[in-house]
Amino acid sequence: MTAIRMVSSVLLLVLMQSGALCARRFRGGRNPQPRRAPPPPTYRADRSDTTESFPLDFTAVEENMDNFMTQVKNLAQSLYPCSAQKLDYDMKLNFLENTSVTCNDGSLAGYYLKESRGSRRWLIFLEGGWYCFNKENCDSRYDTMRRLMSSSKWPQTKTGTGILSPLPEENPHWWNANMVFIPYCSSDVWSGATAKTEQNGYAFMGSLIIQEVVKDLLNKGLDNAKVLLLAGSSAGGTGVLLNVDRVAEQLEGLGHTGIQVRGLSDSGWFLDNKQYHCTDCVDTVSCAPTETIKRGIKYWGGVVPERCRQAHQGEEWNCFFGYRVFPSIKSPVFVVQWLFDEAQLTVDNIQLTGQPVQEGQWRYIQNLGIELRNTLKDVPAMFAPACLSHEVITRNYWIDVQVKGTSLPRALHCWDRSLHDNRNNKAPPKGCPVHLIDSCPWPHCNPTCPTIRDQFTGQEMNVIQFLMHMGFDVQKMAQQQGMDPSKLLGMLSSGS
């Protein structure tokens, strides 16, 4: 039996590597070309040239010889047309079987699916995109961002990137999972359970959409899953915190007790802090975070995790803030959070464009990093770089950002291993950290942060230029210390 496994593993390794080479050839010549650059955001930081290699992940077939030939057959079939046509990597649109669960405007809700036959790992991703909290700003949202409220113009296919990518070079440990992308069309931070009526004009059914997607997927192979990772970014990241236990309870209630449900929350760990400047509550950007959620949860008919609801009776809005809801969550959750999140700074009325940042703003930004770091200190599994950015796990550059020498995909792989070892009463693997937080105190002191661009000129800014724009004179401080500015940045990044 051991010999068979060795031969099987070698054969599978050869096929997987061949498949990866073929895949790269049909993705616009990604090999030997470098990874495509991400679209220029408002602020992103220069990446270092450090890269990291990973072993291929055999979790999907380990100890499951019944599926081995299925895996080989599927890989062989994908290799056969390699020289003749483009391989199909896209996720395909499916509408919910339950037509009563809808987007805001009453159109059918749905999901995109790319199956990976033979794999027992499933990744369900919740899209982000802010929210609205009354009829006026929901009407405005419908006029300007209809894609986030209606399915009427959704494309038939969607290509996964980052942790949704089917390419091992871009997604080292989850590339062979069954991928599900749920578009955000409920504007309720994935919390609503209210149908459309003549009075309010909109449906808010985010929580129900997740439940119905899970139900539909059980007929497409999820019933045989070993691991289900519920992931999301921004509002989707908060949606993970609100729904991961509900999904686990749903599956358990349907008799699927063998599925391990986990959460991955990206850029959804918001603070209910005081704004830098208080303004009238007109929309989601000008309103204080607590006020928008207080109004929204009533307008949406929002539901929160039961244990959190009991802890905050009458003030259920608390459950939308990561550090308040996290202690009540039973399922394992990995938190990814920039210490200087752009969306958090936006709702706090900190503007980072135009004139250099004023001293009061600079102190506020530094304090935000301290506050966020304090709320994360008791989270067992997390990745928190000192960068000014928003969202990361579906970005092409997600493998490049590091905290203390460890990349995010590596940290997630270590988390997977630690959960597996815990279930088997094994000691956690050495040299495989899962609690990673930058100790340097200001934005982009980590040299692996994403690239920064000036909003007005579009030109890239190096870290020193950016910090000087933020009011911190790196050159002057380095001269005082008698060292090179880049060396100073390296020391700051390492926490020295």
Question: Mind sketching the topology for me?
Answer:
Blueprint: H1 2-25, H2 68-79, E1 91-95, E2 110-114, E3 121-126, H3 135-144, E4 157-158, E5 178-182, H4 206-217, E6 227-233, H5 235-253, E7 260-266, H6 289-300, H7 306-311, H8 322-325, E8 333-336, E9 340-341, H9 342-347, H10 359-376, E10 382-384, E11 388-389, E12 402-403, E13 406-407, H11 408-423, E14 435-437, E15 452-453, E16 460-461, H12 463-469, H13 474-481, H14 485-494
Parallel strand pairs: 3-5, 3-6, 6-7, 7-8, 8-10, 9-11, 10-14
Antiparallel strand pairs: 1-2, 1-4, 2-5, 12-13, 15-16
Q: Counting H and I runs of at least 4 residues, what is the number of helices?
A: 14
The secondary-structure element order is HHEEEHEEHEHEHHHEEHHEEEEHEEEHHH
What is the level 1 CATH name? Alpha Beta
Low-confidence sequence ranges: 1-8, 18-63, 79-85
Order of strands side by side in the largest beta sheet?
4-1-2-5-3-6-7-8-10-14
Strand tally, please?
A: 16
Cα end-to-end separation:
52 Å
Biggest beta sheet summary: 10 strands, mixed
What portion of the residues fall into strands of 2 or more residues? 5-15%
Protein structure class: alpha/beta
Radius of gyration: 23 Å
- Average pLDDT number: 81
Number of self-contained structural domains: 1
CATH topology heading: Rossmann fold
Q: Which outline best applies?
A: globular
Q: What percent of the residues sit in helical stretches (DSSP H or I)?
A: 25-40%
GO biological process, one term: negative regulation of canonical Wnt signaling pathway
Family: Belongs to the pectinacetylesterase family. Notum subfamily.
Pfam families: PAE
Keywords: Signal
